[in-house]
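User: Can you model how uridine-5'-diphosphate sits in this protein?
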Amino acid sequence: MAIKVKSKRSAPARPRSVVTGAAGFLGSHLTDYLLAKGHRVVGIDNLVTGSISNIEHLAGNQDFRFIQQDVTEFLFLDGPVDYVWHFASPASPIDYAQLPIQTLKVGSLGTHKALGLAKEKGARFLLTSTSEIYGDPLVHPQKEDYWGNVNTIGPRGCYDESKRFAEAITMAYHRQHGLQTRIVRIFNTYGPRMRLKDGRVVPAFVSQALRNKPITVFGEGKQTRSFCYCSDLIEGIYRLMMSDYHLPVNIGNPHEMTVLEFAKEIIKGTGSKSKIAYQPLPQDDPKQRKPDITLARTLLKWEPKVALADGLVRTIEYFRQKV
Ligand code: UDP
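Assistant: Here's the modeled complex, given as structure tokens:
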């Protein structure tokens, strides 16, 4: 007679994620998002541009472990890993100017090490690439099949070329090792936890406006950008990781505006007395940028939800405590 053994249903295994750049602006938002989804997270950061203050609320969280390390060094980690999210990199023009070699190294050697970790663990790998790989684009809006217009030796070359290399090595690991890889091209993103002095337009304008100082518009302010709120971006990136698509996908907000229009929005949003102060346009500053997100819309059923005015309220609130 067969004996029926009542099997005790085991709890589903919880995924384990590694986030490089976990103390950075976007890396820390991703970490929060993954923990909320039930992942265990190992965050790695060398704190060159990241800040412990972005993750200090996670102190004591059993599901989070922080390792202070440069991801260009060999990454050793015990235990299984399901997902590697490679977010580490300086990401503002001022940072590239001050840290050009670190910028090149993290995009090249750091991506190599993060891919190596994913291969060793049989994990899925996601690269955060950038709209900068399109350079000063001659095609507008930018679609994923546009190859770009990059000045290799200009001030942005260290970032643009390191990310172009990162895309190439990610595809090589996919083709040669059969690694499951994802590539997101991130367009301008903003929100709480950006560094006050990182030089990018959102922290620059918001902090100037909050202090009633002149708003430094570069050039005539006719260059365009489109700004995505951080929570929208993280949702899109998560969906991409969970999809089965290995080619690059743009994630960003297609709501395009000039930098001058943006400055006026900030003055309005902060109720500031600031006036516009025009300054020289930096070399190779892209004249226009707007993502074509048709692919993300169809493939991931994703599109941004947070309107600029709402995202700015949350961002301004954050910066009010910092200035
Ligand atoms: N910008 C500006 N004033 C500033 C900082 C930036 O006018 O104080 C402009 C910059 O020239 C660019 C746009 O704002 O055209 C976005 O700059 P950011 O550094 O945020 O990022 P980018 O999109 O150029 O990588």
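A couple of observations from the model: The CA atoms of residues 269 and 313 lie 7 Å apart. The radius of gyration is 20 Å.
User: Helpful, thanks.
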